[in-house]
Amino acid sequence: MDLERALRDQLREGEKLLWSGAPEPGLHLQPGDGVRIPFSLAWCGFALFWEFSAITSSTSLLFPVFGAFFVAAGLYFVFGRYLHAAWLAAGTRYAVTDRRVLFLTRKGVRSLYIAKLSGVEKKEKRNGLGTVFFQTPGLPAQFRSRSRFDMLAEPDAFVNIRDCDRVCRLIESITAH
User: Fold this and answer.
1) How confident is the model at residue 142 (pLDDT cuts 50, 70, 90)?
2) Which of 57-66, 95-104, 160-169 has the lowest mean pLDDT?
3) Cα→Cα distances 168→22, 105, 131, 140, 146, Å
4) Residue 18: closest CA among 120, 90, 112, 100
5) What is the pTM for the complete model shown?
6) All structural domains of the chain with their residue ranges
7) CB contact at 8 A, 71 and 48
């Protein structure tokens, strides 16, 4: 199903589609990656060392099986989370209507009524990509996760989009009315 048709199927009677887009494909580092990358490399390196030692020096099958879970977690931390985020992003579409913001993901459709948003925030990078965060009543923003994977898995933001500033201004203009 093409993007336009999927979006139009979500529109309610009288609702107008004002903008649609998708996350920019590719690898996008996040602010927390400066800490996550060294940690994940250390974790994976230690897990591989453990596994190698367990296989070569242990007569018991318990230690290699135990270590395999840590190797799998380490490989996910180093590589898998980026591949998973890319897979999620490839199946994600965003839209702004005159009433709602829509998230079409591999898990289904989620929408937020613009009138019920308590605020809109944007973070724009030098390369022109940005993320628009939708603040909803309830949990304060500082307690919500801001990792790309989490935002794609349970969206409350338009992640890594072009025209971030324009989309933010569009939503703010709707809330002003």
Assistant:
1) very low
2) 57-66
3) 15, 21, 9, 20, 18
4) 100
5) 0.75
6) 3-23+94-176, 33-87
7) yes
